[in-house]
């Protein structure tokens, strides 16, 4: 079992602590939180060992799990990597792309593994259809959330939209060509609602909307490609695949047939892939353990986390134009 330590014992940090303790892949050694009062309360309530310093925790483990505010990711991760420890870090990987590049370089130098916590990659609705998404040419994503003060220290792009950016980059095998976006600050000092249009070199276009001031929660994405439409509901964990194929000469009475202006007939049929219930956070943590043990590429590498951050920053920069 890998010895694991958690940095940060806030809302998400407590979830990670619980799951690491339950996991058969890890031995939870303890945690470090800079808020001494909160650290003591969590140690007393849950009996997780609280370390007095970041350095002491790093020394005691094989892998660290960074679940602290984004602004602290870089310094914490750098200490761990230099000590030869494997790194799991919540999204976004760091505050700046330059910091992410430095972490990637350090990880290679010290021969440690790194994974970024883009949890939607492990959402069962997405994993059920990912292999069916071949060459999407238009993608539409909506990620709407009710207001929560937690996370408003960064723009909604880094808080919410970056989830969809990462998912899209994982299925579109082409470089980003252009980004245009707009964002509006309503409650926070940074934009609370944003829309981005991302164009890829292969012609694919992605239209993304993210809001943290909505009256209801929504996390949906739709992928359009030749002869297929795929929808993913990340919140409800549902998905649907609608495909078209050349219509048979003698379709049955219940077949759905469409005919275009040129007279070409297509038959529509539906697939509802099997969705296996899971805990996506536990899955991402345990997949990282497997990558360490088997010396394989993590599902969401530091490089992929950095690329998602780079595109997110392109969206934010587009606000200023």
Describe the protein.
It comes from Gillisia mitskevichiae. InterPro entries: Gfo/Idh/MocA-like_OxRdtase_N, Gfo/Idh/MocA_Oxidoreductases, GFO_IDH_MocA-like_dom, NAD(P)-bd_dom_sf. Residues 133-216 form the GFO/IDH/MocA-like oxidoreductase domain. Residues 3-118 form the Gfo/Idh/MocA-like oxidoreductase N-terminal domain. This protein has 321 residues and is of the alpha/beta class. It has a domain at 2-120 and 281-304: NAD(P)-binding Rossmann-like Domain (Rossmann fold, 3-Layer(aba) Sandwich), CATH 3.40.50. It contains nine helices and 14 strands. It has helices at residues 11-22, 36-46, 54-60, 70-82, 97-110, 124-127, 156-171, 280-294, 302-319, and strands spanning 2-7, 26-32, 63-66, 86-90, 114-117, 138-144, 176-184, 193-200, 205-211, 218-225, 228-233, 238-246, 256-259, 265-271. A nine-stranded mixed beta sheet has the order 7-8-9-6-10-11-12-14-13. Strands 2-1-3-4-5 form a five-stranded parallel beta sheet, sandwiched between helices. Helix 4 (70-82) packs parallel to helix 5, helix 5 (97-110) packs antiparallel against helix 9 and helix 7 crosses helix 9.
Describe how the helices and strands are arranged:
Layout: E1 2-7, H1 11-22, E2 26-32, H2 36-46, H3 54-60, E3 63-66, H4 70-82, E4 86-90, H5 97-110, E5 114-117, H6 124-127, E6 138-144, H7 156-171, E7 176-184, E8 193-200, E9 205-211, E10 218-225, E11 228-233, E12 238-246, E13 256-259, E14 265-271, H8 280-294, H9 302-319
Parallel strand pairs: 1-2, 1-3, 3-4, 4-5, 6-9
Antiparallel strand pairs: 6-10, 7-8, 8-9, 10-11, 11-12, 12-14, 13-14
Helix pairs in contact: 4-5, 5-9, 7-9
């Amino acid at each position: 079992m890998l010895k694991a330590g958690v940095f940060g014992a806030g809302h998400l940090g407590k979830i990670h602590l619980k799951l690491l303790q339950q996991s058969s892949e890890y031995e939870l050694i303890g945690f470090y939180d800079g808020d001494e009062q909160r650290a003591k309360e969590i140690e007393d309530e849950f009996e997780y060992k609280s370390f007095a310093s970041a350095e002491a925790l790093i020394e005691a483990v094989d892998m660290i799990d960074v679940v602290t505010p984004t602004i602290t990711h870089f310094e914490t991760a750098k200490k761990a990597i230099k000590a030869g420890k494997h790194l799991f870090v919540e999204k976004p990987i760091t505050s700046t792309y330059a910091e992410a590049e430095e972490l990637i370089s350090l990880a290679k130098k010290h021969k440690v593994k790194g994974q970024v916590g883009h949890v939607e990659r492990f959402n069962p609705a997405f994993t059920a259809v990912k292999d069916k998404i071949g060459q999407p040419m238009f993608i539409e994503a909506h990620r709407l959330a009710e207001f929560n003060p937690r996370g408003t220290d960064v723009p909604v792009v880094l808080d919410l939209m970056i989830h969809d950016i990462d998912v899209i980059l994982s299925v579109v095998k082409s470089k980003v060509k252009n980004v245009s976006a707009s964002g509006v600050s309503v409650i926070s000092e940074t934009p609370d609602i944003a829309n981005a249009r991302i164009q890829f070199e292969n012609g694919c276009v992605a239209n993304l909307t993210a809001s943290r001031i909505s009256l209801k929660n929504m996390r949906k994405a739709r992928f359009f490609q030749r002869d297929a439409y795929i929808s993913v509901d990340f919140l409800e964990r549902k998905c649907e695949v609608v495909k078209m194929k050349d219509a048979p000469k003698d379709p049955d009475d219940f077949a759905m047939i469409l005919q275009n202006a040129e007279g070409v007939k297509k038959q529509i049929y539906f697939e509802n892939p099997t969705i296996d219930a899971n805990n996506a956070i536990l899955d991402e943590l345990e997949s990282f353990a497997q990558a360490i043990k088997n010396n394989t590429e993590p599902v969401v590498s530091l490089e992929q986390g950095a690329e998602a951050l780079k595109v997110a920053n392109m969206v934010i920069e587009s606000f200023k134009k």
